[in-house]
Design goal:
The protein contains 3 helices and 4 strands; from the N terminus they run αβββαβα. It has helices spanning 14-23, 62-87, 108-129, and strands at 25-29, 32-39, 48-54, 93-100.
Length: 130
């Protein structure tokens, strides 16, 4: 399994982002608000496209927001294999938005542990919809 986080795995298209916000389902698992949408995409697309948001209102400095995003991205990159394996049997893809909601900067270990819980929940939700 390729452990990179390339451009194709990032949620960039405005119409997909708007569809995710309009039609997506969500849940909260501290410190993440997870909004996801099960969508039919083309074969060339990866199984999951991800966007990460850190609120400017809570973290005024861009350096802090970028630190949080880097920690989340690294954890996602290392753990995505589990989710991809679960989604490989299905022909739909997931669009995912992770909104960081904690008031303080959590350590990488905490973020990694919580993101593992988020991924298990996403696998359960994807299994229900299959």
């Amino acid at each position: 399994m390729d452990e990179s986080f390339g451009k194709s795995e990032r949620l960039c298209l405005k119409r997909r982002f708007e569809a995710l916000l309009a039609d997506g389902k969500s849940f909260f698992l501290y410190p993440f608000r997870v909004i996801y949408l099960d969508k039919q995409l083309t074969e060339q697309e990866p199984p999951v496209q991800l966007a990460i948001a850190v609120r400017k209102k809570k973290f005024k400095k861009a350096v802090t927001r970028n630190l949080i995003r880097r920690r989340i991205r690294e954890s996602w990159r290392r753990r995505k294999g589990e989710l991809y394996a679960c989604l490989s049997t299905r022909h739909n893809n997931l669009l995912v938005l992770l909104v960081y909601g904690a008031d303080e900067v959590l350590s990488y270990a905490d973020i990694d542990r919580r993101l593992g819980m988020v991924m298990r929940r996403l696998m359960e939700e994807a299994g229900k919809q299959a």
